[in-house]
Write a structure and sequence with these properties.
Largest sheet: none
Radius of gyration: 16 Å
Number of domains: 1
Number of helices: 3
Order of helices and strands: HHH
Helix content: over 70%
Distance between the termini: 18 Å
Strand content: under 5%
Number of strands: 0
Structural class: mainly alpha
């Protein structure tokens, strides 16, 4: 338990959140018309890689504080 009384997230929770966030990002760009996708990816490459890095950092922090698997 955490100080607030809420259960600590599991490692699996951290990974699920990471994958869901990445899935939403991929879906956003996959939804673009084929003829616009490459230009949009090129224009937004810094934002995309920054968002991936941010999400990965958050997951790593959560993994460090998450409850280890039981068993």
């Amino acid at each position: 338990m955490t100080v607030s009384g809420m259960p600590r997230p599991t490692r699996a929770d951290a990974i699920v959140d990471l994958l869901h966030g990445l899935e939403r990002l991929v879906a956003q760009y996959a939804a673009l018309p084929d003829d616009e996708r490459a230009d949009s990816l090129a224009r937004n490459a810094d934002r995309i890689t920054g968002e991936i890095g941010r999400r990965l950092h958050v997951a790593r922090v959560r993994l460090g504080t998450a409850r280890p698997p039981e068993g």
